[in-house]
Structures are given as C-alpha cells and as structure tokens.
Amino acid sequence: METSQNRTLKGPLYCPLLEQMREDNLNNNNTQVNLVVVCIHGIFSSLGILENALIIWVLGFRLRQRTVASIWMLNLAMSDFLATLTLPLFTFYFYSSHSWELGYPLCIVQTSIFFFNMFVSAFLLAAISLDRLLLVSKPVWSKNHRSVARAWKLCALGWGWAALNTLPYSIFRSVIEKADSRKLCYHHFALYLSSEDSLEMDCNVRQGATAISKFLLAFFFPLVVIAGSYIKISTGRLADTLTLFTKMVTSVIAAFVLCWAPYHIFCILEMAAQYNKKIFKLVQVGLPVSATFAFLNPVLNPVLYVFSCPHFCVRIRQSLGAVFDGLVEEGGGSNLDRILQSEDSENKHKPGLGLGQLLRSHEPFPSNKLLFSSSSLDSYFLL
C-alpha cells in the first residue's frame, strides 16, 4: 500500500529527455517570427491541399483510361493529400506559441498521418524508380508483367507496410504538460511497460530503434534504390533517352533529400540530446523547423511530378482532363518506340524477329498501346 501511495505521489514516469523538455522554458515569444512561421505554414497548407486535391480529382475521375503511371501518381497524391490536411494542425501549434492545444485524439491523428506519409512516399518513390529501370532495361519483361492491377496491388502493399511501420509512433505518443503550462504532442517512450529500474534503458532502446529504423526504412534504403536505379539507367545503352530529363531526375532526388534529410539528422541527434546541453538546445529549435521542411515534400511533389512536365505551358490552355490525359496516356511514338524501331532496322537482315517486332508480336497488347509514350510521360517515369 505504501509503495502504491509513493508511486501516486511521484506521478507518471518520463524519459530523461522528455523530463528535460518538460522543465525547459524555450522562449517562443517573438511575435513577428511566430507570425512569419504561421503565414508560411498557412501558404503551404493551402497550396498542398489544393494541388493534391486537383490531381486526385483529375486522375481519379477525369481520365479516360487507367495506366500504371496514373496509379503511381494517384497514390502519391492521396498520401500527400492526407499529409497536407494535417498541416493546419501543425500551423495552429506554432500559432499557440509551440503549445499543443488540440487534445490527445488530434495529436495521434497528426502524428500517424505524418509518419504514414513518410513511409508511403519513400516506398512509392523507390517503386517508381525500379519500375522505370525495368521499363528501359527489360522492355520484354515489362510488356508481359506490368499492369494496372499489379500496380494497385503494389501500392496496397506499400500502404499496408507504411501502416505497420507507423504503429510504434502512434502507440508511444502522448500530450504532456510542461512546467510553464504549455503542452507537447511528443513521443513518450516510458508510457507502457516501463519501471523506475529499467526506465533509462527502455527509453534509450525505444528512441534509438524508432530513430534509426525510420532513417533506414524511410530515407536511406529508398534513396539507395532511387539513386541506384538512375545510375544504372544513365550508364546503360538507353541513356540517350534520359538526356532531356536529367534536370527532372536531379530535382526529384534533390527534393527528396533536402526535405527529409534535416528531419532525420535531428532525430538522430536527439538520441544524444539528454547527455549534451548544446545538442539539446539545438534539437529543441531545429526539430520543429526540420519537420516544416519535411512537410514541404508533399507540397512540392505535384510541382515536380506534374507541373514541370515539358510542354505544360501549351497543355495548360487545354482542359485539365486533357492535360492529365497527356501525362499518363499510353500510345503514340515514345523514345522507347524509336529505340525499338532502331532495333528492328538493325535486325532486318537477320533471321527471326527484332526486339521491336518481338514486343509487337504479342496479341494481348495492341501495337498502338505499346508501353508508354509522349515526352511528358517519360519525364514522369523518371521518378
């Protein structure tokens, strides 16, 4: 009975880092700076929601025909749309002088969607990169195995994988009141299955596991796949198909790195923050700022995947449906078609079928629907 009373008097257990954050009185009373941050977040929120809603509307309801390209883009837009919907919550947090006044349920919602989008985006970017690599390096295999149904299944696998990886961040999340009465929506690794004896070890293991796993699974490994795919393509025999889109590839990879690298760096630094006061202060200021950069990714994605398409200035004068039809339309003469025609020309004096003839010989795939076409769509497939 005495032990129970002592525990009640002591209150809940907190990890050493979280205890420091509760006691720390970070000065966020600069009204002008807070106003600028709130305005920037408001702009991001509006742009991100409108851009991704527009893409979902067109790709989901206006396209005449589903393609693998449209499935990739639609799933990216849906994930990004969910992320941008939570931006107003993060904006209100800054508006409230870095205090979470929206309650526990919205804390869990905001956290879950943030990490869910992080994992989904990384998975889809890696999948698109591999798809592009297979498309140009193994055209026969791609012709026989790439389909809209399989693209949907792969996307569903990515969403399930992301949901599974998001669970630890949702479970160990709580609203904690600080000494100055402000509230934190933050990870609380001592929330479950911890005692005073094992507190420090539990906190270090859980924080280290989440920080390192999300760095590896949602940043490093996808980045290796993305970079490796494009290096392989650019050094292969089909490298000439990419010269017009090198800038696009560079922009996509650079945006992915620039938006998420600061966040992962600060999460890893946070592991040592409780032992170093300078690192603690740096993380206190830098982590919210780096999270803002991470939120930039779903806002920038529509620009990078769609609106940087070649000839868009011409297509923008057409209806929105026609614009996106042009982006994901299958048919016509693509760079790959020209390569296949070149293969036919080189093999016309040789017995048997050339590569282009072989691809066109399969009945289930009409020749006028061979793989993917238009320079605008090629730019998308570099993602």
TrEMBL record:
This is Prostaglandin D2 receptor 2. It comes from the Eukaryota. It holds the Pfam family 7tm_1. One of its GO terms (cellular component) is plasma membrane. InterPro entries: Formyl_rcpt-rel, GPCR_Rhodpsn, GPCR_Rhodpsn_7TM. Signal peptide: none annotated. GO terms for molecular function: complement receptor activity; G protein-coupled receptor activity. GO terms for biological process: inflammatory response; phospholipase C-activating G protein-coupled receptor signaling pathway; positive regulation of cytosolic calcium ion concentration. Residues 51-305 form the G-protein coupled receptors family 1 profile domain. It is a multi-pass membrane protein. It is found in: Membrane. Belongs to the chemokine-like receptor (CMKLR) family. The keyword Transmembrane helix applies. Keywords: G-protein coupled receptor, Membrane, Receptor, Transducer, Transmembrane, Transmembrane helix.
